[in-house]
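This part of the workshop introduces the protein records we will be handling. Each record describes a single protein and holds just a pair of labelled lines. Instead of coordinates, the fold is spelled out as a row of discrete tokens. To make this concrete, we reproduce a full record directly below:
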Amino acid sequence: MTLPTRAEHIQQQLRELGIDREVIRFDEGTHTAKAAAAALGIEVGAIANSLIFWMADAPLLVMTSGRHRVDTAALAAQLGEGAIERATPEQVRAATGQVIGGVAPLGHPAPIRTIVDVALADYEQLSAAAGTADTVFMLSYDELLRITGGEPRVVGD
């Protein structure tokens, strides 16, 4: 199955970063962490959801475990830089060049400050979106931290 151009770009970036993994394309999009986990045969907590928020007039990427929701008030208190609000679809597209449901942890037009949920460390292998709603790739928690330059934090309830 051929990959969308955006997913091919993500796969190339991964290889350049020393992560030689194949991007997986689903026949149908997986619109929830639960659906993606079922399709991959992994626990829902091993899904590394890429969520774009807005804080201090800038995008904030939060890579969170599919097993819980981001507690924006608690995360804002930890970071101490003001309120955190969910980005609009337009803000997501502008910040990442990707659409909601397919945001990859890399491949953005400019670097985005990234927070990585420490709950993801509980899993040997994680799944992250590869730039489209129907593509993903597998990686470890340490690889996720490395490719994003992310800050490990408690983000969920």
Remarks:
- The helical segments are 5-16, 33-40, 72-79, 89-96, 141-148.
